[in-house]
Amino acid sequence: MTGRPSLPDALSGRRGTAAAVLAVSLFGLVARLYDLGARVAHQDESRVAYWTLKYAETGVHEYRPIVHGPFLPLVESKIFAVMGPNDFAMRLSVALVGTLLPLSAWLFRDRLRDSEVVALAALFAFNPILLYYSRFMRVDVPLAAFTFVALGLFVRWYDTRKRRYLFAATASYAVSFATKENALVYGLCFLGAAVLLLDHRLFLARVRDRDPLGELRRLARGALTFDPVAALSRDDRGELLRGLPDAVRARKTGILLSAAVVLEFLAIVVFFYAPRKGGYRIDSGTEGIGLYWSLEELAAGRPGMFVAVVEEALLGSWTKFMDLWGAGEDHEFLYYWNDYVDTMEAGAAVLVALAVVGFLADRYSSEGPRDLVALGGYIGAVSAFGYPIITDIPAPWATVHAVVPLAFPAAVGLALIGRWGRDAYVDGDGIGVAAAVILLLLIVAQVGGAAMDTTYRNPADPDNELVQYAQSSSDLKPTLEDINRIARENEGVDVMFYGGEFYSPNDSVSQQPPAHPGNWFHRLPLAWYFEAEQHRLRGSDAEFVVNSTRSSDFVDDPPPVIISTRTDAGAYEADLEGYRAHQHERYLHSSTIVIFIDEDYLE
Predict the structure, then answer these.
(1) pLDDT at 281 over 80
(2) How many CB atoms lie within 10 A of CB 465?
(3) Burial level of 422, CB count in 10 A (0-12/13-18/19+)?
(4) Strand, coil or helix: what is 332?
(5) Nearest-angstrom CA–CA distance, 93 and 36
(6) What residues form DSSP beta bridges with 582?
(7) Sheet containing 592-598: which strands, arranged edge to edge?
(8) pLDDT band of 543, cuts 50, 70, 90
(9) Assigned CATH for 477-602
(10) Which residues pair with 498 in a beta bridge?
(11) How far apart are CA 395 and CA 336, in angstroms?
(12) How many CB atoms lie within 10 A of CB 462?
């Protein structure tokens, strides 16, 4: 039988592949930005946004492990300065960084087939878990994005020996350390995966009738001996190797290059982790240090503060991290594991299935396992079992760190189905074409349906497995709009929190993490919205929020808005006249609060 002519392949050639990756990334960006501010802020989002706004107003900041790395506060404070504090601006940096993932697929073009590169971009762009948490003010997606962008850049440097990739990779990897402490976990995962890839080398050496020990010695020499000539471009190598003096100069160049990379990494880490304007210690009356102050001192010939800033950014931050997270977590594995599996089933079932197919197909292909595909499979598998052990709460966002690496073998599996359909068409196999098309349509339908349901239709539904418990399941936005309008119209106290659940003896402690003592945390996410409105009302004489535990403080002259738990409302509800009650959940369930609003203002 004569085969049919080949299909016009839109992905053939590098230009077509680049165009496809760019198109997928743009669609992914639109999906991330669409209606970005609609969902009510999660407790974690609201506390970080609150403290970020405080930093934007005061300029005072220092690393606190309870907020994770300083990336979001430092970046989002600049966005707030331009766009103002709101939910869209709060999530914007994460959405933009999340788009780096599909774009990063292009960096692996020499290690994957063109169809696999496009498939990888599509999986990064539209996987429901990655999409949901790219629209969420948490650093898990930025951590994964910066880490795997760094991996792609390191791969490009290794393949081309162009220094710009090395410096860009170092910068991306350093920024990943500014997002979240889990960057250390990624380092361990990469190290463990490297050991397994070494096993690949030794196994293949035996299969190809080479001495495994000789192969090990060769690899060890390459790992322990820095070859500065290899760090140069191919065009420069021949000339530099013609004489010993040139080779010596090249070695010196290599040493300088290594030193520059280390200094670049440390400089970026110090920039993010250094305290600003004295840090929080300045509020207690003690002498503080700050990054920009130290640079002024250094320019004046006084390096003492600069040395102290570097020490605080590196050693001080490490000490804080170990004090809070260094002890690890002690909890029942199966409970956390079941929650993790439920999230993966809801948001990554197709990706996991494709990853298994792609990993096995690549491992047992005639060309043998490719390092990149195997690395993704190993890190993804370890993360799926490891994160339920190390996380402090059942957290659906932890699945991000399994989904991203598993996308590499999943891309192989997805592209394999596409090539199967293409080959069937060329061979005139109608049944094969139909099977491939149906399978691809089912994949698109399942992933698209899950993304639409979890991210857009029900982003705060208790039945949504991607939603963590501290997400309010109520639509607070209409009530908040009423409260904000009241704040603009009313003179005097606008909002009162009533009862021990919300009481804080000194609200000034909330201005910096960890906001103890007191129950300020229980006011979230409302505290973020009230602070954002207070920021917009700067210059007015309104006293926006107060708190009390005695109803006698306000029943004779109540403020227009009173907030309490359903139980505490019984102490004063009968004394309120002309107030309308609005009930909302602070969390997914079992957290009802009552917001009483003066109906005169509602009219």
Answers:
(1) no
(2) 20
(3) middle
(4) coil
(5) 11
(6) 595
(7) 543-548, 493-498, 561-565, 592-598, 579-585
(8) low
(9) 3.40.190
(10) 548
(11) 8
(12) 13
